[in-house]
Each structure stands twice: as C-alpha cells, then as structure tokens.
Amino acid sequence: MFKSFIPLILLALIVACNSTKVTQTAPADEYFSVQVIQNDEVIEMKKGVIHLEKAPFKFLVTFYKTDNVSVSASWGKHYYDFPDDQNIFNGDDTEDQDEWRFVAIKTGSEYKFNSKRSLGIGDGSYQKNWFYDQSMDWHRFDKGVEVKDGVIYATRTVENISDYDLRDDGGDKSDYEYPIAKIDKDIYMVFAASHYEPSETTELQRKKFILRFK
C-alpha cells in the first residue's frame, strides 16, 4: 500500500515543531476546528456525516493553538477507523508501513494557494499537511488567510477531485481529475494536530467526518 510520494519531510518537521506556536485562548481542548461551507452556509454534521450537494464547497479551518493540521481525504477508512484511544501519529511505534497513518514521509505535495481548487483523494497511502506560517510566502489554502488576535482563519475551496487511486491504476488525466459534480461516493475526512519531539510525535486533537453527496 505504501506507494511513491513527493516527500516533504523538512516541511513536515517545521510545521510539527511549530504546533503550539499560536497562543490565543481557544475552546477547551481544541487546537483547531473545521467547518464545511456550501452556498455561504455552514453545513452541520449529523451523526458524523455532512451532507452536501454535488457542487463546490469550502473547508474553513480555524487554528487556535497550532498553525497546521495533518489531513487524510480517502475513499476508505484506513485513517477514519483508527482507534480514538491510540496515537494516530504512530509511525514511531511500528516498522510495519501498512499500519502507518500520519507519518512525515507520507506527506504529499499540493499546489500553492490551492490554485487548482482540488481535493486529492486516495487510499491510506496518502496524507497532506495544511499549514499557515506568516514567515513563509506560500501555503496550501486559498489566498486571503486572516489572522486576528493570534487566531488563524483559512479556507480551502473544493471545485474538483483528483482521484489518486485512478491515477495510480494508470488512468487518463481526464478520468482521475474531474469536477465535484461527478462525484459518486463518500469521502472520509480525518484531521489531526500533533506535537513533535525527536523521540515521539504526540497526537493533540483529532476530528473526523464523512462527506456524503446528493
């Protein structure tokens, strides 16, 4: 399952080390929050599912006590079903790559400023890191990230899907890159914040939900 990646080890370590950089007072036990917006409305989660139209939508990520979040967008449950009472940043705990979830060397690259307005989706081999660092001149979110009183507000628009599974199977680009209007299955979303130390990466918070389209 562990496939080729464009590793971003250095970037992953930088953002992990900065995970407690934002110090603004936050909701109890929350380092970040994620909301899904469609047609200018926040779509509420019901029993772990967010129901959307087959139309563009946005993630609104609010960073309270961190400046980055690890992200899995998947057709399957490799990340989604990982036990809540175990460290999802578990690469330090096992050499079995099939058991890895959020591990720095699995972090793939994405377009700067979300220029393709695309969400990459695949199996458990893929993960992303969405970050905002004011000392860097680029990030993965839409342009226009706001920082107010130490809290970071960042949006990421999704208009298209990049299906990594179809790409890895040798499909044509027209098959694995398509508009959200053509989506025909659920997306399992997992977000997690961490604190990095040389001996261990500790999970600070996790949020997950299913995107279901109608």
Account of the protein in words:
The relative contact order is 0.25. The protein is 8% helix and 36% strand. It is globular. The longest helix has 9 residues, at 9-17. Mean pLDDT is 86; it is low at 1-24. A hairpin with a 2-residue loop joins strand 1 (32-38) and strand 2 (41-42). The strands form 3 sheets. Strands 2-1-4-9-8 form a 5-stranded antiparallel beta sheet, with no helix packed on it. The chain has a 5-stranded mixed beta sheet with strand order 3-13-12-5-7. The two termini are 30 Å apart. It has 214 residues and is mostly beta strands. It has helices spanning 9-17, 164-168, 173-176, and strands spanning 32-38, 41-42, 49-52, 57-63, 68-74, 118-121, 128-131, 146-148, 151-158, 160-163, 177-179, 187-197, 200-213.
Task: Walk me through the topology.
Blueprint: H1 9-17, E1 32-38, E2 41-42, E3 49-52, E4 57-63, E5 68-74, E6 118-121, E7 128-131, E8 146-148, E9 151-158, E10 160-163, H2 164-168, H3 173-176, E11 177-179, E12 187-197, E13 200-213
Parallel strand pairs: 3-13, 6-10
Antiparallel strand pairs: 1-2, 1-4, 4-9, 5-7, 5-12, 8-9, 10-11, 12-13
Name the features:
214 residues; mainly beta; 5-stranded antiparallel beta sheet; 5-stranded mixed beta sheet; 8% helix; disordered N terminus
What's this model, at a glance?
The chain is mainly beta. The protein has helices at 9-17, 164-168, 173-176; strands at residues 32-38, 41-42, 49-52, 57-63, 68-74, 118-121, 128-131, 146-148, 151-158, 160-163, 177-179, 187-197, 200-213.
